[in-house]
Design a protein that fits this description.
Number of helices: 3
CATH topology of the largest domain: Lipocalin
Radius of gyration: 21 Å
CATH class of the largest domain: Mainly Beta
Distance between the termini: 27 Å
Keywords: Signal
Protein name: META domain-containing protein
Oligomer: single chain
Number of domains: 2
Strand content: 35-45%
Number of strands: 21
Structural class: mainly beta
Pfam families: META (PF03724)
Length: 265
């Protein structure tokens, strides 16, 4: 996948009021850096030139404890390094993917990039909410989004892969799998047919039993995706959780990538 460079100006982070933060003699908080790092900040909206644009599903910003940064601008994801102190965070040159999306996500991405790169942004936070404001009054509104648990989440499968490649599922496909902590079973939809099977979770692996499915026939693309998903069953798969995404990997290297549903899914 092609990548391109995205350079953001240094972002000045003003002290964030947090209940656990100590205060200096001048009254400013010294807990701001800790409160910003390690948090998945979901982008809610961007207001620029007096016009507010709601963020596409999945837009976010994250700064890790080791100084790495990653996120999604609305269409393309990005990654790089960030330097955070008690009162500012500086983004260097970031690498972004080069996908083309529909008109609305691309327009939002350009607006978000321009706002983040507009120089120092004042930070106002309360609870799980953050607002970054430029000197001209443009704003990025963010909300802390909690991690999704493996069990009890209706995981939406978005891509299947193998041999180092990954292919997005057809737009009309909507396979979802839920691991039930009470019954130790997985159930849901394969995109066409419903499925249920035994699922034993242990030490980063899930042992999936023989699947029981309904017998409907659907379009060729849906049946092809369903067949690929079924190959994960009746065996052991490794799993990796990353905030609200789940990757299942079979013993022969086939993968399924899934995401936790947002409030609109």
């Amino acid at each position: 996948m092609n990548t391109h460079r995205l350079t953001l100006a240094a972002l000045t982070v003003l002290p964030l009021v947090v209940s656990c933060g100590a205060e200096k003699a001048d009254g400013s908080s010294v807990g701001a850096a800790a409160s910003v790092k390690g948090v998945h900040w979901s982008v809610d909206s961007v207001t620029a030139d007096g016009r507010t644009s709601e963020a596409p599903s999945g837009a976010y910003l994250r700064i890790d404890e080791d100084g790495g940064t990653s996120g999604d601008l609305g269409c393309n994801s990005f990654g790089g390094k960030a330097s955070v102190t008690a009162d500012h965070v500086s983004f260097g040159s970031l690498e972004s993917t080069g996908m083309a999306c529909e008109k609305t996500p691309m327009a939002f991405e350009r607006k978000l990039s321009a706002t983040l790169g507009a120089g120092p942004l004042a930070l106002d936070g309360s609870g799980d909410r953050l607002t970054l404001t430029t000197g001209d009054g443009d704003r990025v509104r963010l909300t802390k989004e909690p991690d999704a648990p493996l069990r009890g989440t209706a995981w939406k499968v978005t891509a299947l892969g193998g041999d180092g490649t990954s292919t997005a599922l057809p737009a009309e496909a909507d396979p979802r799998l839920t691991f039930d902590p009470r019954t130790d079973k997985v159930s849901g939809s394969l995109g066409c047919n419903k499925v249920t099977a035994k699922a034993t979770v242990r030490d980063g692996h899930i042992t999936l039993g023989r699947p029981s499915t309904t017998r409907m026939m659907c379009d060729t693309s849906l049946m092809k995706a369903e067949k690929a998903l079924l190959r994960l069953f009746d065996g052991t798969v490794g799993y990796r959780l990353d905030h609200r995404s789940l990757t299942l990997t079979s013993e022969n290297g086939e993968t399924a990538h899934a995401v936790a549903p947002s409030g609109t899914d």
